[in-house]
Each structure stands twice: as C-alpha cells, then as structure tokens.
Design goal:
With about 350 residues, the protein is α+β, with helices and mostly antiparallel strands. The chain folds into three domains: about 80 residues, Rossmann fold (3-Layer(aba) Sandwich); about 60 residues, Dna Ligase, domain 1; about 170 residues, D-amino Acid Aminotransferase, Chain A, domain 1 (2-Layer Sandwich). Helix content is about 30%, strand content about 30%. It contains eleven helices and 17 strands. The strands form three sheets. Strands 9, 10, 11, 12, 13, 14, 15, 16 and 17 form a nine-stranded antiparallel sheet that branches. It has a four-stranded parallel sheet with strand order 3-2-1-4, with helices on both faces. The longest helix is centred in the middle third of the chain and has 17 residues. The protein is globular, with a radius of gyration of 20 Å. Bound molecules: adenosine-5'-diphosphate (ADP) and magnesium ion (MG). The site of magnesium ion has 2 residues, from loops. Its EC number is 6.3.4.18. This is N5-carboxyaminoimidazole ribonucleotide synthase. InterPro entries: ATP-grasp, ATP-grasp_carboxylate-amine, ATP_grasp_subdomain_1, PreATP-grasp_dom_sf, PurK, PurK_C, PurT/PurK_preATP-grasp, Rudment_hybrid_motif. Homodimer.
Length: about 350
C-alpha cells in the first residue's frame, strides 16, 4: 500500500449532501477523517464530518486552506467549477481525476466518449438553437428527449418531444442553455452498475441493480436485476472498460437501458450513486467504503452481495412514514435534512428479501 492514507489522515470532500455524509461515515470506520467543503451551511455531510468549510466555490483563500488541510480530495457533487479544481489540484491530488469529471459533466462529451469506446448509446445530436433542433429531429425523429448538456439531475433540464410540433416548447424549456437531443430508447427496464477502480488499476463491480424511476427521480432499486447471465457479464465488462479508459480511481455509477438488442448506456456518474445504496446492507463492503478505500489508496474490498435487497428512496413526505417503517425489518438511512420539500431525497430504506440468489 504505497502512498496509502493512514488512519488519522484526512480526505477532503467537495459537496456536502447525503452522498458526502455517507462517505464520511464510511471513512470514519476506517479511522480516516473527512473535511467537507460546501457553500451551503449545515448540510447532511458537515454534521458527521470531522471538519467542514462553508465557503463559496470562488473563495480562493478558503479553497487553498481546505486543500492544505487534507491529504486527498474527492467529490460528491459534479458541478464544482473548473477554476476551483485547478486551485485545489495544484496543492493536493483529486480522485477521481479531472477527465472523469469533465466527461460526465457534459452530456455531449459523455456520449462522444461512450461512442468512441464502442458502447451503445441513444442516437444523439447537439442542439443550440431552433435550426440545429430541426436538423437533429430530421435525423433522429420522434419521440425524442431534449436535455441540457450540463447541470441536469433527477430528470430536471429535460423536455420530451413526442411530435415535431413540441419542438419550440421543448427548446424554450432549455432557457438558452446548450442542449443535446436524444432519440427515445425503447427499453424494457433500467439497470445500473456501480464499479470501482483502485490506484493500482484493480477493478471491482457490484451486482447490477434494477431501477424504477417516478417523475424522473429514482424510486426503487432491486437486486438482483432482471438480466441474463450474458447481460450481467456485459454490464460489468462495460463498466470496467469505462473505469480503465478514464484511469479512474474511486466508485462510478453507470446507468443502462435494457433493450431487445442489448444494453444501451444512458449516463455515467463519477461518484457513489443513489442506485448503489442497497450495498450498505447487501454487501460486506458497500459503495461508500469502496470509494474511500480507492481514493485513500487502499486495496478494494470484497463487494460480493450476500442478500437480495430492495432499496426504497424516501422522497419528500415519504419521511413521515418513518415511525411505521421503524417497526418493520428495514435498515433506515436518514440524511438529517430538517425540511421535507417535494422531490427532495430525505433518506432511504433497505429491505433484505432473502439470501443472494
Ligand atoms: N434517451 C432516452 N430514452 C428513453 N428514456 C430516457 C432517455 N433519456 C432519459 N430517459 C429517462 O429519463 C430518466 C432520467 O434521465 P437521465 O438522462 O438519467 O437524467 P438525470 O441526470 O436526471 O438522471 C432516465 O432514467 C430514463 O428513465
Ligand atoms: Mg440518470
């Protein structure tokens, strides 16, 4: 374990939401400290981290002090400005690396990257104005989805185009932001693979999970996913291909559509992923510990699944059901958010449904 962090050393985490919170908890079990950097005060991660800096992404003094106080930096939030990362990287390594972040920040770069790797994606075209949207629709047809290239999440920044007559309204929804048109993929269901790669290049993937979304937000992940043995192998191999091509260190989420002609990659997330939360109760080593191990330069752990699991997200008012859920056989994970707004992820519940099949 050359260059591996030792207990007592510190991992810096950019972003202070629930993913950062669960990373900090995992790090603490390994005797590592976390220092969270987030512009918002009192978020889910700061509460459980050894240190927290609340400062803007362009606060150079705060960024420098943060970078000097930690031994490696990782992130749970993809939209940290490039200038902030430049400043940090001059002082301390960032894992996963900048290319992984850049590729997944922009849906067009992401699609180009996947296509160049030989992986199947939805047909796509870049859209900047009405003329390029017309040309894209001409080529791709309908139904299609127009998405902002950057900053979209939980189905935000997307508009469906069922017929050419929807085009103008969809374009207006982009608010002038650069966009990408994607052909609608006829999928039977959606799955994801959570993969990890260590500093030495070793790769380990968790079993694929099957994801059900509601209103663009992940509602439930079930393992095992409905996949043939060949599809399962494909899913893991393509995740490994992405990790290796990016010289990635850490955990990565790959969202996939299952279609009659095979797996189609929807998007990748350069971080721990909501659809991997089942690993907390279905595996000896979960995605959060796996990510911490990787960025700390430790060997990856054994992520073999010991149980079948259903993970349910608690969104908005769902959290009011906690007293009732607490009386059932379920592992409860709450993020400590005070206010339950509509569409806000408040926590999740893992239910074991039997020994691993
Ligand atoms: N090209 C597509 N074809 C069919 N469904 C899609 C397509 N793109 C997105 N979707 C649906 O919308 C959901 C959210 O889109 P996604 O690109 O994953 O954005 P987000 O960043 O919000 O997760 C997907 O999980 C899928 O259900
Ligand atoms: Mg998605």
């Amino acid at each position: 374990m050359t260059d591996a962090l030792r207990p007592g050393q510190t991992i810096g985490i950019l972003g202070g939401g629930q993913l950062g919170r669960m990373l900090a908890v995992a790090a603490s079990r390994l005797g590592l400290h976390c220092h969270v950097y987030d512009p918002a005060e009192g978020g889910p991660a700061a509460e459980v981290a050894a240190r927290a800096t609340c400062a803007a992404w362009d606060d150079e003094a705060a960024l420098r002090a943060f970078a000097e106080a930690v031994d490696v930096v990782t992130y749970e939030f993809e939209n940290v400005p490039a200038e902030s990362l430049d400043l940090i990287e001059a002082i301390v390594p960032i894992r996963p690396n900048r290319r992984a972040l850049a590729v997944s920040q922009d849906r067009l770069d992401e699609k180009d990257f996947l296509r160049d790797l030989g992986l199947a994606t939805a047909p796509y075209a870049t859209v900047d104005d009405a003329a390029s949207l017309d040309a894209a629709l001409e080529r791709i047809g309908t139904p299609a989805i127009l998405k902002t290239r950057r900053f979209g999440y939980d189905g935000k920044g997307q508009a469906r185009i069922m017929a050419a007559s929807d085009a103008a309204a969809a374009l207006a929804e982009m608010n002038g932001a650069p966009a990408i048109l994607e052909g609608f993929v006829e999928f039977s269901h959606e799955v994801s693979v959570i993969g990890a790669r260590g500093t030495g290049g070793a790769v380990a993937c968790f079993d694929p999970g099957e994801n059900r979304h509601e209103g663009g937000i992940l509602r439930e992940t079930t393992v095992p996913a409905r996949l043939s043995a060949a599809q399962r192998t494909d899913a893991v191999l393509l995740a490994a291909k992405i990790l290796t091509e990016l010289d990635y260190v850490g955990v990565l989420g790959v969202e996939l559509f299952v279609t009659a002609s095979g797996l189609v990659v929807n998007e990748i997330a350069p971080r721990v992923h909501n659809s991997g939360h089942w690993t907390q109760d279905g595996c000896l080593i979960d995605q959060f510990e796996q990510h911490i191990r990787a960025v700390a330069g430790w060997p990856l752990g054994d992520g073999a699944r010991h149980s079948d699991v259903v993970m349910e997200n608690l969104i908005g008012d769902d959290v009011d059901r906690i007293p009732e859920i607490a009386g059932t056989q379920a592992a409860i994970h709450l993020y400590g958010k005070a206010e339950a707004r509509a569409g806000r992820k408040m926590g999740h519940v893992n239910r074991l449904t039997g020994p691993a099949r």
